[in-house]
Specification:
- This protein is an alpha/beta fold.
- Helices cover 41% and strands 13% of the residues.
- The chain folds into 2 domains: 271 residues, Crotonobetainyl-coa:carnitine coa-transferase, domain 1 (Rossmann fold, 3-Layer(aba) Sandwich), CATH 3.40.50; 84 residues, formyl-coa transferase, domain 3 (2-Layer Sandwich), CATH 3.30.1540.10.
- It has a 6-stranded parallel β-sheet with strand order 3-2-1-4-5-6, sandwiched between helices.
- Helix 6 runs parallel beside helix 9 and helix 8 packs across helix 9.
- The relative contact order is 0.14.
Length: 397
């Protein structure tokens, strides 16, 4: 089966993560994606693992490779008018243009969506910014740390009641926004192909965060009350809680319908006496006495290791998971069985693994196997395809 976006062509002017990650997903779906970078290459390209304290001599940036695999690379200095003109000619040859330049910079370089759609009536323009195109904050710079994580309330609520706010892990909000942009572009592509002409797809880190946190946000919109933080010592449902186990590890229970699982749970942890305890007769009584029950369960779980608990909890059909470390998650047997990682082919670093696309289509092989291109490797070929003369290309390279 052909790749879903075979024949679709994309130009990307973006750095760091959100829009490049969307470009990588478009490439995974079969589109030809041309990434335009500054001549020295963006900072993200140069972030080797050793710079972050890893004991390795791997010569590339694994996150950059994940978010830029399968693309062609063009190096242009957009501060030069001939480079902006060349970029405009490239955009005129493709179906989709994506960027994370702030609105003011888009206007400066002739990349404002209104101007582009006037020049190219069937073009799709997609953008990700911190706060969206418009409003007082439309031109504010942002990372997902500030806008997706802190400003939405996620940083405040994603902690136990007695813990300080924690930092988000790198690019969590960016990858969520990337999927939103791809979703919007696919819908826009269908509109265009149905005769609707060019479209502008606007995605923000702020709106993405509000949607991801939608359960709490929707409650807040109606109640205007603070969300209740989790407190594992007094959680109303002791079967929806985290517990330490032996050897300084943790597990998570997630049995929301607690009464349904209570008998087999007590059997699995070898505490049948809890079934006869009047304090724990049903979900309401367990909630009233949650501190006592959680103390009992914490003592029970502390008697065994994760390896010992796994067959007992799995065998009872309970909904739970070990709190895995990242270095364990990459060898998760289910993730391996489902092919959630893929190998990339790199000319100098050799083959290495990265994260596969976050969806599958039966009968269709998704995910580019080509690593991110060497900086500027395709500049001449792409500019030539856009109709530039050899003299014009020589001036830009």
């Amino acid at each position: 089966m052909n790749a879903p976006l075979a024949g679709v062509r994309v130009v990307e002017v973006a750095s760091y993560v959100a829009v490049p990650a969307a470009g990588a997903l478009l490439a995974d779906l079969g589109a030809e994606v041309v990434k335009v970078e500054v001549p020295r290459g963006e900072i993200y390209r140069h972030g080797r693992p050793s710079f972050s304290g890893y004991a390795t001599d791997f010569p590339e940036s694994p996150p950059f490779q994940m978010d830029n695999k399968g693309k062609l690379s063009v190096a242009l200095d957009l501060t030069l008018p001939p480079a902006c003109e060349a970029l405009g000619r490239m955009i005129g040859e493709v179906d989709i243009f994506i960027t994370n330049l702030l609105p003011a910079r888009r206007k400066k370089y002739g990349l404002d969506h209104a101007e582009l759609l006037e020049r190219y009536p069937n073009l799709l323009v997609g953008a990700i910014s911190g706060y969206g195109h418009g409003g007082d904050a439309g031109d504010w710079p942002a990372f997902d740390y500030t806008t997706y994580w802190a400003r939405t309330g996620m940083m405040d609520i994603m902690r136990d009641s007695d813990a300080p706010p924690s930092m988000q892990r790198p690019a969590v909000g960016d990858h969520a926004a990337a999927v939103n942009l791809v979703c919007g572009l696919l819908a826009a592509l269908r509109l265009r192909d149905a005769g609707g002409g060019g479209q502008f797809v606007d995605v923000s880190l702020l709106q993405t965060g509000l949607h991801i946190l939608g359960t709490d946000i929707s409650n807040a919109l109606v109640t205007r009350e603070p969300a209740k933080r989790h407190n594992r010592r007094t959680a109303p449902n002791a079967l929806w809680n985290s517990y330490p186990v032996a050897e300084d590890r943790w597990l998570l229970l997630a049995m929301i319908e607690a009464d349904r699982y209570w008998p087999q749970f007590c059997a699995a942890i070898e505490r049948p006496e809890l079934l006869a305890d009047p304090r724990f007769d049903d979900a309401w009584r367990r909630g009233e006495n949650s501190a006592d029950l959680i103390a009992e369960l914490e003592a029970a779980f502390g008697e065994r290791t994760l390896e010992e608990w796994t067959p007992r909890l799995d065998g009872a059909g309970l909904i739970w998971a070990p709190v895995q470390r990242v270095e364990e998650a990459i060898d998760d047997p289910q993730a391996r069985a489902m092919g959630y990682f893929q190998r990339l082919e790199h000319a100098t670093a050799g083959d290495f693994e990265t994260v596969a696309p976050p969806f599958r289509i039966d009968g269709c092989e998704l995910g580019s196997r080509r690593a991110a291109a060497t900086l500027g490797a395709d500049t001449r070929a792409v500019l030539r395809q856009a109709g530039l003369t050899e003299e014009e290309i020589a001036e830009l390279t």
